[in-house]
């Protein structure tokens, strides 16, 4: 099965970006670990990061033809993007929302997500491990 891993704005800066919130791993480090987990489970992963809302939306649309599951850290678009929410609703592909930091322990504007109520699950505050936990959940489901 095929799993799409989407990362939103500024996550290309992981490793140097506010490590007290986001940890020391780069996005490439995280993707390497996910690739290892996926190949052991015979799953194909595709990664896409963008700082542009329309590019993320285009990937969600394309996922209709090439993905069975989406793991997404929408970053700041979590709190702003009705368009990304509508795209995920439109394609009807199950997804897990991941945040490195615990958004509920931060500024109030991070407490609301436009995606959480349509997500299958939300992982927030467990750092880079959150992506691995989301992947494990996706694999279990896709194999059942
Ligand atoms: C984030 C949390 C968001 O509030 C923030 O805008 C991000 C990253 C996280 O992974 O903790 O860019 O999604």
From TrEMBL:
It catalyses: 3-dehydroquinate = 3-dehydroshikimate + H2O. CDD domains: DHQase_II (cd00466). PROSITE patterns: DEHYDROQUINASE_II. Its EC number is 4.2.1.10. The record marks 17 as: Transition state stabilizer. InterPro entries: DHquinase_II (IPR001874), DHquinase_II_CS (IPR018509), DHquinase_II_sf (IPR036441). The active site is at residues 22, 99. It is an enzyme of class 4 (lyase). It comes from the Bacteria. Pathway: Metabolic intermediate biosynthesis; chorismate biosynthesis; chorismate from D-erythrose 4-phosphate and phosphoenolpyruvate: step 3/7. One of its GO terms (biological process) is amino acid biosynthetic process. SUPFAM superfamilies: Type II 3-dehydroquinate dehydratase (SSF52304). Keywords: Amino-acid biosynthesis, Aromatic amino acid biosynthesis, Lyase. Transmembrane segments: none annotated. Substrate binds at residues 73, 79, 86, 100-101, 110. Homododecamer. Belongs to the type-II 3-dehydroquinase family. This is 3-dehydroquinate dehydratase. It comes from Methylophaga thiooxydans DMS010. The lineage of its organism: Bacteria, Pseudomonadati, Pseudomonadota, Gammaproteobacteria, Thiotrichales.
């Amino acid at each position: 099965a095929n799993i799409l891993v989407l990362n939103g704005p500024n996550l290309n800066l992981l490793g140097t970006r506010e490590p007290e919130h986001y940890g020391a791993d780069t996005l490439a480090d995280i993707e390497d670990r996910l690739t290892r987990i996926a190949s052991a489970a015979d799953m194909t992963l595709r990664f896409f990061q963008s700082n542009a809302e329309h590019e993320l939306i285009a990937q969600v649309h394309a996922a209709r033809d090439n993905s069975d599951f989406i793991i997404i850290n929408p970053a700041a678009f979590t709190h702003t993007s009705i368009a990304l929410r509508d795209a995920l609703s439109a394609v009807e592909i199950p997804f897990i929302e991941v945040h490195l930091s615990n958004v509920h322990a931060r500024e109030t504007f991070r407490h609301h997500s436009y995606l959480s109520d349509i997500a299958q699950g939300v992982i927030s505050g467990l750092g880079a491990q959150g992506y691995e936990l989301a992947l494990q959940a996706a694999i279990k489901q896709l194999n059942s």
